[in-house]
Amino acid sequence: MRRSFKFPLRPTVHQQVALTACLDDHRALYNAALEHRRTAYRMAGVSITYGVQSADLKHIRADDADGQGRWSFSCRQATLRRLDKAFAAFFARVKAGRTPGFPRFKGKGWFDTVTWPKDGDGCRWDSQPEHPSATFVRLQGIGHVRVHRHRPVRGTVKTVSVKREGHRWYVILSCDDVPAEPLPSTGAVVGIDLGVASLVTTSDGDHLDNPRHLSASADRLAAAQRDLARKKRGSARRRKAVARVAALHGKVRRQRLDGAHKAALQLVGDYDVIAHEDLRIANMTRSASGTVETPGTNVAQKSGLNRSILDAGWGVFLTILADKAESAGRELIAVNPRNTSRTCAACGHVAKENRLTQAEFHCQRCAHTAHADVNAAINIMRAGLALRDVTQAA
Q: Which residues form the Probable transposase IS891/IS1136/IS1341 domain (predicted)?
């Protein structure tokens, strides 16, 4: 299996300056390569490929030895590949008839990751293995940067990335051949319903709380953003205000990740088979504002619901659950969510009127009552087992 490991960096002041310069130079290369493609097509109708731009790197580095020439050749190629992937995604969206979104120039603060595509080529993980108590990663042009390694790295390190998040720096390792860690079989099966009141409700009747981290930080975020709005663009005070807003959002993101990891770990430890709804979160959180000609309805309510769904972090949770289930040898089944909340788990009657409120389910045919989310989780579990039987029979 392939897995990623993320660790905080502990750079010195000089290394922070060098890391910032590295990001700035990679951003300049990305923007220059984008302008090269735009100009060539606009002026001559020529499409510039990654191969052409990669071949030009040698001359660029020779002409700017103290700038672009400081960094690894392979990591510069990785930045050009990043632009090439952006164009490939753009053309795929055009072909599919979706809103294309042409690749954009990266402003300061919008280019925060640099990747070295091969461990040992311009970078070296655990570059000082003889050190008795610390781990270091060596980056060309920056030096040996200390790493806060809080867990062991498994598998073979393939790529090394450095990412800036606010004022923090992280190293991200992509590893191949990571061994699975199967858990003992429990023989238990569960369906889970994702919600806003509770992050997860199981078919066994358990509820995992939704901490609502964004709502808890809303007042501080609003104050920080009002303070930011009063600052003059380009000023030192504005940069500090931006950093405060970024720090608050970073804390919310880390809290959400931590909660998702804990909830997923609990489910994976308790159940062999987990069925969940195959949610299209991007569609569910689409704006209801409409257009000038055909304005939407209940826009304020839909906006509040969208905010609550995104605050719950369903997508993050499902991604982490899938990773943990694969590593633990558990089976994860995604089922169609259609009518799972309107179907009676006792008699199978389907009606919108069965769900009286957000939390109360009362079947109009058989008078079965239950918590609405528990009823939906039971339906999800049954649908998952049925889908599993069909797949195994085929």
A: 181-287
Report yes or no: 182 and 150 within 8 Å, Cβ to Cβ: no
- CATH assignment, 189-212+253-393: 3.30.420
Catalytic residue chosen out of the listed positions 25, 84, 193, 311:
193
Q: Where exactly are the structural domains of the chain?
A: 3-176, 189-212+253-393
* Active-site choice (84, 119, 311, 373): 373
**If we measure between CA atoms, which residue out of 362, 329, 327, 357 comes closest to residue 345?**
362
pLDDT digits (tens, 9 = 90+) for 13-54: 999 999 999 999 999 999 999 999 999 999 999 999 999 999
Which residue out of 25, 119, 277, 311 is catalytically annotated? 277
Q: Model's pTM, two decimal places?
A: 0.84
Q: Please return the burial class of 90, using the count of CB atoms within 10 Å of its CB with bins 0-12, 13-18 and 19+.
A: middle
Q: Is 373 a catalytic residue?
A: yes
Q: What whole-number distance in Å separates Cα of residue 191 and Cα of residue 203?
A: 5
The residue length of the chain stands at 394
pLDDT of residue 294: 60
Q: 277 catalytic, yes or no? A: yes
